[in-house]
Amino acid sequence: HLVSFSLADGKPVSLSPLESQPHSPRYTASSQRERESLEVRMREVEEENRVLRKQLSLAQSRSPSHHRGNHSKTYSMEEGTGDSESLRAGIVAGNSSECGQQPAVEKCETIHVAIVCAGYNASRDVVTLVKSVLFHRRNPLHFHLIADAIAKQILATLFQTWMVPAVRIDFYDADELKSEVSWIPNKHYSGIYGLMKLVLTKTLPSNLERVIVLDTDITFATDIAELWAVFHKFKGQQVLGLVENQSDWYLGNLWKNHRPWPALGRGYNTGVILLLLDKLRKMKWEQMWRLTAERELMSMLSTSLADQDIFNAVIKQNPFLVYQLPCFWNVQLSDHTRSEQCYRDVSDLKVIHWNSPKKLRVKNKHVEFFRNLYLTFLEYDGNLLRRELFGCPSEADVNSENLQKQLSELDEDDLCYEFRRERFTVHRTHLYFLHYEYEPASDNTDVTLVAQLSMDRLQMLEAICKHWEGPISLALYLSDAEAQQFLRYAQGSEVLMSRHNVGYHIVYKEGQFYPVNLLRNVAMKHISTPYMFLSDIDFLPMYGLYEYLRKSVIQLDLANTKKALIVPAFETLRYRLSFPKSKAELLSMLDMGTLFTFRYHVWTKGHAPTNFAKWRTATTPYRVEWEADFEPYVVVRKDCPEYDRRFVGFGWNKVAHIMELDAQEYEFTVLPNAYMIHMPHAPSFDITKFRSNKQYRICLKTLKEEFQQDMSRHYGFAALKYLTAENNS
User: Which of 503, 528, 499, 382 lies closest to 452, judged by CA?
Assistant: First the structure.
């Protein structure tokens, strides 16, 4: 078998004279002889390996079935030279047989990655790509994201709340770059953003020497440092590292009159590019590609494959620019590809590229394996990727330092420690998980319905959408795997897919509590209308409530007064309810006992001040006073105070918010022709915990008292009534 001297981590032992020089001054002739004999033995082993490799490759070329004995790899030269995998297997192979080889990537060297990303869907794809890179990485990473305003908002929030150590993110405004490439007609589905990789030499910092450029539909199956190491193999004027295109596109024989852009042979695929930026700038890359594009567009009229056509046309004229990467660095899964010739074994796979518009439905005999690998990262818990890099100090991050300071001030022996800690937990947040498109009405009366939910309430979404045609902002508390279930559910629903004015904001699960008020705050923060209706996911608004609220906003001058408009809440215990079409119909159902005022049986105080007796006959809005434990559903201006995050799970989360509105002198006004109905459901996990766990109830009481003390400190004399009201209740 092949022999090599390697350390435990598979790196070859270096025996250069400097490194073997002992620190002791007593360096004897005998140790000199030992070193020389070891070197002789090493050379003998090398020679044995060389002969054995030759025999193995001869045997393999004769053998029809490729048997991979003891991990030896033989890649043909035209596939490039992938040596790091064979080094890991402890084989000093091919062109890397010098004993003194140093690791190609330093331990804490930062790897730079550039990605062009625009819109809602691409932002989701980027997360899966980033997860696959983070999963395998051992080096600090610096992502350079060329993003439009949408992707920037989504990804900036995501990375701020993800707080992954040793990862830096910089954004570059893709919309500012449009003028650089908008003169090129492009038929590819990526649109104008598909051309932006051409201008990276201009866009990225001028002191950045090299960068790996990736499409968003890429999945890594290995450490990205292995790809970064390939830069060391560039020779002469090589400035672009690319994998050969694995489809027949550039051969021009796919159909009659098929005329692709000029390319060298099969051409190259630009889903994975190594760019030597400093050399490209010296070569005047900018002029080079522009002149080529202008010349070719005279006859071609437009690009079919965006930047890839132009890269290939430049390479056709200047083949010396390319270092051809082994094809396992970009296994292309579009239809009609030769990708299966790239890998003989799963361990050969390094990068998978879903470069077909069909994505996961592409035809490939191993597609099931690829799909599962992709789904692994899609559903992988991103919180597990927050691990520190050992031995690489990460840059001080203000957010994480503040968080550590706040947590260190908590007493871990406090029985309510877990409750208090939740207030400071930073939950990874992915805003606008699905496509969102909404321009608020120009008359400044628009209202967004705000609610939060977890997986068990998903079935309410369609019903709410049927009852409320206006904009909706939802915070969903989900795990990574549940987020993908939600995505499939939404994409399979005609009702949800026909609506573009619903913002779905995913707050990822962490810790043991349901952070109800954090969720409400996330949903409230991301509305684009001047007013919001603070509802709950289990309620169906009456038909026409959206338009009625917009009229009420004007009628009650909400723009210039501090008011909270109350929508009276009712409930049914029936799963199949014939929903009342009018107030008159609702009143007759109340009288018949098919409807009740909300929480009539268990918690009358929550809605008693609404004064349902008065509401029955009211035809104009009327004012009510705050009372202890009041928790109505209200319409307010978007500048209303946030919910208090100390309240998690069940209990006091809305009560505290209404108390704060009262302290800020909001007027509570009941709307005479508005109503909402609570639909029945199984009790939530948190209410079950509240009913069964004494400690939960004790901690809730403690937090309540602390909140009231904070209120009196903050609002002074006016807030004393909350303490006395509480004592009397």
Answer: 503
Q: Which two tokens stand for residue 702?
A: 């403690």
Q: Which domain holds residue 121?
A: 111-385
Phi-psi region of 214 (alpha: psi -120 to 50; beta: other; left: phi over 0): beta
Which residues sit opposite 709 in a β-bridge? none
Residue type, 694: K
703, 652 contact by CB (below 8 A): yes
User: Residue 466 half-sphere exposure, CB side, CA atoms within 13 Å?
Assistant: 10
Amino acid at 558: L
What letter does residue 337 receive in the DSSP assignment? B
Question: Does 262 lie in the same domain as 357?
Answer: yes
689, two tokens: 């915990």
> What string of H, E and C letters represents the secondary structure of 509-525?
CCCCCCCHHHHHHHHHH
Cα dihedral: 76, 78, 84, 89 (round 10): -10
* Sequence-ordered list of residues with C-beta below 8 angstroms from that of 483, at least 6 positions apart, any chain: 430, 433, 476, 506, 508
Angle, vertex CA 105, rays to CA 103 and CA 109, nearest 5: 140
Count of structural domains, the chain: 2
Reported as a single tens digit per residue, the pLDDT across 456-480 is 999 999 999 999 999 999 999 999 9
* Residues 419 and 425: beta-carbon distance below 8 Å: no
pLDDT in tens, 153-188: 999 999 999 999 999 999 999 999 999 998 888 888
Alpha carbons 218 and 271: distance in angstroms, whole number: 8
Domain boundary among 368, 385, 402: 385
- Residues 481, 358: one domain? no
| CATH code, domain carrying 634 | 3.90.550.10
Average pLDDT, the chain: 83
The strand pairing partners of 566, in sequence order, are 634, 670
pLDDT band, very low/low/confident/very high, at 646 (cuts 50, 70, 90): confident
In a domain, 84, yes or no: no
Cα–Cα dist 429/226, whole Å:
31
Q: What residue has token string 């008020």?
A: 517
Joined tokens for residue 240: 């672009």
Distances (CA, A) of 519 to 127, 169, 413, 428, 524: 21, 25, 28, 12, 9
Contacts of 421 (CB under 8 A, 6+ apart): 407, 410, 511
49 φ, ψ (degrees, to nearest 5): -60, -45
Cα(194)–Cα(202) distance, rounded to whole angstroms?
Answer: 16
Using alpha carbons, select from 563, 516, 483 the residue that is nearest to residue 684: 516
Residue with tokens 């590229």: 353
DSSP letter, residue 394: P
Q: How far is CA 531 from CA 447, 475, 555, 634, in A?
A: 5, 17, 14, 10
Length reported for the chain: 729
Distances (CA, A) of 77 to 58, 61, 243: 16, 15, 13
Backbone angles phi, psi at 116, to 5 degrees: -95, 130
On whether the CB atoms of residues 114 and 147 are closer than 8 A, the answer is no
State the Cα–Cα distance between residues 673 and 545, nearest whole angstrom: 9
How confident is the model at residue 183, as a pLDDT? 87
Contacts for 345-350: CB closer than 8 Å, 24+ residues apart: 345/68, 347/71, 347/85, 348/73, 348/85, 349/221, 349/222, 350/82, 350/220, 350/221, 350/222, 350/226, 350/227
To the question of pTM greater than 0.90 for the whole model, the response is: no
| Residue whose token pair is 């704060």 | 660
Q: Which of 133-142, 197-206, 282-291, 387-396 has the lowest mean pLDDT?
A: 387-396
Query: What does the pLDDT look like over 69-115, one tens digit per residue?
Result: 333 333 333 334 333 333 333 323 333 333 444 457 888 999 999 99
232 domain-assigned: yes
